[in-house]
Amino acid sequence: MQFMLVEQSSENTPKDDAAKYNERSLSTLIRTLRLSQGYFSFVLVNCNSLALRQQIVDRLQVNCPVKPQQLFLPKSATTLYRTIAAEIDGEQPPALMLLGLESVETIDRLLVSTNLLCSEFSKKFSFPLVFWVTDELLRKIIRTAPDLYNRMTTIRFISNK
Predict the structure, then answer these.
(1) Secondary structure (H, E, C), the chain
(2) What is the pLDDT of residues 87-103, one digit of tens each?
């Protein structure tokens, strides 16, 4: 399994460098989840490969002392805040990973409402919220929900091509 975390974009990375980069990214993600326990934070994980994403999620379940809960967003989701509140039902998971954002039919509406409610998340939730996004969705977040994006810690994984 080869992973990578990026703070700076590196499109033409050789395979060995990509693997090293992804390992650093995985370590950063694990450290971020561990240090965020008991506190709310937005974490954006950029990964374009669904296969690599699944490998990372699997490795997190094995190697991370914080076992993140997974939430697969329904295509019909319109508000993230209410969707999460309904999913956790008053419980506070150690971390919550949002998967399937790229499949939400009204993603612009969901992002706008999330952007407007940014400050409300920390009032109700005390765990890191991990957004798994592709490059395309990342651009949409930056354009549609700039306040949300500015509050996020960003970690990038790159796939070998």
Answers:
(1) CCCECCCCCCCCCCHHHHHHHHHHHHHHHHHHHHHCCCCCEEEEEECCCHHHHHHHHHHHHHHCCCCCEEEECCCCCCCHHHHHHHHHCCCCCCCEEEECHHHCCCHHHHHHHHHHCHHHHHHHCCCEEEEEECHHHHHHHHHHCHHHHHCEEEEECCCCC
(2) 998 899 999 999 999 99
